[in-house]
Design goal:
Number of strands: 0
Distance between the termini: 51 Å
Strand content: under 5%
Number of helices: 5
Structural class: mainly alpha
Oligomer: single chain
Protein backbone atom coordinates (compact mmCIF):
# COMPACT_ATOMS: atom_id res chain seq x y z
CA UNK A 1 0.00 0.00 0.00
CA UNK A 2 2.82 2.41 0.84
CA UNK A 3 4.42 1.61 -2.49
CA UNK A 4 1.21 2.55 -4.24
CA UNK A 5 0.99 5.93 -2.47
CA UNK A 6 4.65 6.69 -3.17
CA UNK A 7 4.18 5.81 -6.83
CA UNK A 8 1.08 8.00 -7.05
CA UNK A 9 2.95 10.91 -5.46
CA UNK A 10 5.87 10.49 -7.82
CA UNK A 11 3.56 10.35 -10.82
CA UNK A 12 1.75 13.45 -9.58
CA UNK A 13 5.03 15.34 -9.22
CA UNK A 14 6.08 14.33 -12.72
CA UNK A 15 2.71 15.30 -14.15
CA UNK A 16 2.87 18.68 -12.45
CA UNK A 17 6.38 19.32 -13.70
CA UNK A 18 5.25 18.46 -17.23
CA UNK A 19 2.12 20.60 -16.99
CA UNK A 20 3.42 23.79 -15.41
CA UNK A 21 6.47 24.65 -17.52
CA UNK A 22 4.45 26.40 -20.18
CA UNK A 23 2.54 28.33 -17.55
CA UNK A 24 5.66 29.06 -15.52
CA UNK A 25 7.62 30.47 -18.46
CA UNK A 26 5.98 33.87 -17.99
CA UNK A 27 7.60 34.05 -14.58
CA UNK A 28 11.07 33.75 -16.10
CA UNK A 29 10.91 36.42 -18.78
CA UNK A 30 13.56 39.03 -19.37
CA UNK A 31 12.56 42.69 -19.32
CA UNK A 32 12.70 42.77 -23.12
CA UNK A 33 10.40 39.74 -23.36
CA UNK A 34 7.94 41.34 -20.94
CA UNK A 35 7.88 44.48 -23.09
CA UNK A 36 7.32 42.41 -26.23
CA UNK A 37 4.45 40.52 -24.62
CA UNK A 38 2.77 43.76 -23.56
CA UNK A 39 3.22 45.14 -27.10
CA UNK A 40 1.48 42.06 -28.50
CA UNK A 41 -1.39 42.49 -26.02
CA UNK A 42 -1.60 46.18 -26.93
CA UNK A 43 -2.01 45.26 -30.60
CA UNK A 44 -4.98 43.03 -29.73
CA UNK A 45 -6.50 45.68 -27.47
CA UNK A 46 -6.16 48.34 -30.17
CA UNK A 47 -7.66 46.01 -32.78
CA UNK A 48 -10.65 45.51 -30.49
CA UNK A 49 -10.88 49.19 -29.46
CA UNK A 50 -10.62 48.19 -25.80
CA UNK A 51 -9.53 51.50 -24.26
CA UNK A 52 -9.62 50.21 -20.68
CA UNK A 53 -7.20 47.42 -21.55
CA UNK A 54 -5.04 49.78 -23.61
CA UNK A 55 -4.71 52.14 -20.63
CA UNK A 56 -3.85 49.25 -18.27
CA UNK A 57 -1.25 47.86 -20.66
CA UNK A 58 0.32 51.28 -21.26
CA UNK A 59 0.68 51.65 -17.50
CA UNK A 60 2.32 48.23 -17.27
CA UNK A 61 4.62 49.07 -20.16
CA UNK A 62 5.72 52.33 -18.53
CA UNK A 63 6.31 50.49 -15.26
CA UNK A 64 8.50 47.91 -16.98
CA UNK A 65 10.47 50.59 -18.82
CA UNK A 66 11.10 52.47 -15.57
CA UNK A 67 11.61 49.67 -13.08
CA UNK A 68 12.59 46.45 -14.81
CA UNK A 69 16.21 45.33 -14.94
CA UNK A 70 17.48 41.89 -15.76
CA UNK A 71 19.87 42.13 -12.81
CA UNK A 72 16.94 42.57 -10.39
CA UNK A 73 15.11 39.70 -12.08
CA UNK A 74 18.24 37.53 -11.86
CA UNK A 75 18.40 38.24 -8.13
CA UNK A 76 14.73 37.30 -7.65
CA UNK A 77 15.18 34.11 -9.63
CA UNK A 78 18.27 33.17 -7.62
CA UNK A 79 16.29 33.74 -4.42
CA UNK A 80 13.56 31.45 -5.77
CA UNK A 81 16.12 28.73 -6.47
CA UNK A 82 17.54 29.14 -2.95
CA UNK A 83 14.04 28.91 -1.46
CA UNK A 84 13.31 25.70 -3.36
CA UNK A 85 16.66 24.23 -2.28
CA UNK A 86 15.89 25.09 1.35
CA UNK A 87 12.48 23.40 1.02
CA UNK A 88 14.19 20.26 -0.24
CA UNK A 89 16.71 20.30 2.60
CA UNK A 90 13.98 20.81 5.21
CA UNK A 91 11.82 18.05 3.76
CA UNK A 92 14.84 15.74 3.67
CA UNK A 93 15.52 16.44 7.38
CA UNK A 94 11.90 15.66 8.21
CA UNK A 95 12.07 12.50 6.10
CA UNK A 96 15.23 11.36 7.89
CA UNK A 97 13.49 11.94 11.22
CA UNK A 98 10.44 9.95 10.08
CA UNK A 99 12.72 7.10 8.98
CA UNK A 100 14.39 7.11 12.39
CA UNK A 101 10.97 6.85 14.08
CA UNK A 102 9.71 4.27 11.58
CA UNK A 103 6.56 6.29 10.81
CA UNK A 104 5.60 4.74 7.44
CA UNK A 105 2.68 7.10 6.74
CA UNK A 106 4.81 10.17 7.34
CA UNK A 107 7.65 8.67 5.31
CA UNK A 108 5.34 8.22 2.32
CA UNK A 109 3.93 11.73 2.56
CA UNK A 110 7.35 13.32 2.97
CA UNK A 111 8.85 11.27 0.14
CA UNK A 112 6.06 12.49 -2.14
CA UNK A 113 6.67 16.07 -1.02
CA UNK A 114 10.41 15.66 -1.56
CA UNK A 115 9.86 14.31 -5.08
CA UNK A 116 7.56 17.22 -5.90
CA UNK A 117 10.03 19.78 -4.54
CA UNK A 118 12.87 18.21 -6.54
CA UNK A 119 10.77 18.35 -9.72
CA UNK A 120 9.96 22.01 -9.01
CA UNK A 121 13.64 22.81 -8.46
CA UNK A 122 14.64 21.05 -11.67
CA UNK A 123 12.03 23.02 -13.61
CA UNK A 124 13.14 26.28 -11.99
CA UNK A 125 16.76 25.55 -12.93
CA UNK A 126 15.74 24.97 -16.54
CA UNK A 127 13.70 28.18 -16.56
CA UNK A 128 16.60 30.11 -15.05
CA UNK A 129 18.99 28.75 -17.69
CA UNK A 130 16.52 29.87 -20.39
CA UNK A 131 16.31 33.30 -18.75
CA UNK A 132 20.11 33.61 -18.64
CA UNK A 133 20.37 32.66 -22.32
CA UNK A 134 17.67 35.17 -23.31
CA UNK A 135 19.23 37.90 -21.15
CA UNK A 136 22.51 37.59 -23.08
CA UNK A 137 20.80 38.46 -26.36
Amino acid sequence: MNYSRTLKGTLLALALSATFPAMADDNWQTCKEKQQQIEKQLQYARANNNQKQINRLNTQKANILQNCSNENLRQKYTQKLDKLTNKINETQRKLDKAHAKGDSNKITDLQNKLNENKANLQQAKQNFARFEQAAKQ
